[in-house]
Write a structure and sequence with these properties.
With about 160 residues, the protein is of the alpha+beta class. About 15% of the residues lie in helices and about 35% in strands. It has a 7-stranded antiparallel β-sheet with strand order 2-1-5-8-9-4-3. The chain has a two-stranded antiparallel sheet with strand order 6-7.
């Protein structure tokens, strides 16, 4: 009997999971970047911590490596266009922030107006996670409103602006 390929089986298992789509934004005063992140999780209650993972192939990665804070947004179903914009376009070709409503938030981070649930987090550590980098965030500001969020499975048909 042939043994299953562990990596392929693991990727199928991971691909079956469904969780909310998140958009991470970053800014350094002159530049703004943002992207959909495929891997993220709360990782501590006390102190509160969150791990956001950004693909090294993504343009946002270069800026995230230089800044001291990132903003993380939950995307409501009514704002699916943001998922298409931040997941399907690349800042190499378009100014994503010229195509959506946003405001400067804590530490100058772009806060997406259509996302009523978000937090700004100070980068406490960076981790090499293979083709992604993990950013351990300590919340410094947050807003929340109940909602029905866009999920990973809702966005399966979006062609990524960059490979994962």
């Amino acid at each position: 009997m042939d043994e299953p390929d562990v990596a392929e089986t693991f990727l199928r298992l991971g691909g079956s999971l469904d969780y909310p789509i998140l958009i991470v934004t970053a800014a350094d005063g002159d530049r703004r970047e943002g992207c959909v992140v495929g891997f993220a999780t709360q990782c501590s209650f006390d102190p509160p911590r969150f791990l956001a993972c950004i693909s090294r192939a993504n343009r946002t990665f270069a800026l995230a490596e230089q800044v001291d804070a990132l903003a993380v947004h939950l995307v409501p179903r009514g704002a699916f266009g943001l998922v298409e914009l931040f997941g399907g376009e690349t800042g190499d070709d378009v100014d994503k922030f010229a195509r959506c409503a946003w405001r400067p938030g804590p530490r100058g981070l772009p806060i997406l107006d259509a996302c009523p649930a978000w937090f700004a987090g100070e980068v406490r550590a960076r981790h090499d996670l293979g083709d992604h980098a993990g950013y351990l965030l300590a919340p410094v500001a947050a807003a929340f409103a109940d909602g029905d969020w866009v999920s990973v499975h809702d966005a399966r048909d979006i062609e990524p602006g960059h490979p994962a």
